[in-house]
Design goal:
Blueprint: E1 16-20, H1 25-40, H2 45-56, H3 61-72, H4 75-78, E2 95-99, E3 106-107, E4 110-111, H5 123-137, E5 144-147, H6 150-161, E6 169-170, H7 184-204
Helix pairs in contact: 1-2
């Protein structure tokens, strides 16, 4: 586990929270670059962490795949925005991105994927996740939470069952957007009807 600055910033006004397992190497690198540039501009620690967050969050193909799936769910319609990509740009105040494991974790010089070892079976990682995330999400006011993949969903369901986080609005079944997840299209199509029902229910509240 290594330190990276971007998950230090929490957008407490967000209406949508996307939760990954842990930042990867690319995110870590971009976060450091953005923070250094911010410090060179004379910005504060908070401003540097915010710049790192904006630069690093689900950068690359993962962001592209997330946006594509959010468009298929017609999520922009339910939040009054033109397109899902605006969440990472013009409407960034609506979005908070985070990870169960706040800081990057690597195994054998590869990004940790939540499976080997299983997060719930590793005392150190599970303790980090279950201490950090409930504290962070308590700072927000009932947002829509989108867990990326089965590993994240499993931990969040456990936290709900243990009353460590509120049983609020979740898009259960949202697949991990990594290109390495060859089953993501099938997983998405299976979960899509229930996710759409969740979004329609939110609109009616």
């Amino acid at each position: 586990m290594y330190y990276a600055p971007h998950n230090e910033y929490i957008n407490q006004h967000a209406k949508i929270v996307i939760v990954g397992i842990t930042p990867g190497w690319t995110q870590m690198e971009l976060a450091y670059q953005a923070a250094v540039q911010a410090f060179h501009r004379g910005e504060t620690d908070e401003e540097a962490c915010k710049a790192a967050k904006i630069a690093a969050r689900f950068a690359g193909s993962m962001r592209t795949n997330i946006i594509s799936m959010l468009e298929e769910l017609e999520l922009p319609h339910y939040f009054g925005i033109e397109k899902a990509s605006d969440l990472f740009d013009a409407k960034t105040t609506l979005l908070h991105t985070t990870s169960l494991l706040r800081y990057p974790v690597f195994l054998d010089k590869q990004n940790y994927n939540g499976h080997l070892p299983p997060l719930t079976n590793n005392e150190f990682l599970y303790k980090k996740a279950t201490e950090s995330f409930p504290q962070e999400i308590s700072m927000l006011d009932g947002p829509l939470i989108i867990p990326l993949g089965k590993s994240v969903e499993k931990v969040l369901r456990q936290l709900v069952h243990q009353n460590k986080i509120q049983a609020g609005n979740f898009l259960w079944g949202f697949p991990h957007p990594s290109g390495a997840n060859g089953h993501r299209h099938k997983q998405f199509e299976t979960a899509k009807p229930e996710m759409i029902r969740t979004l329609r229910y939110l609109q009616m509240k």
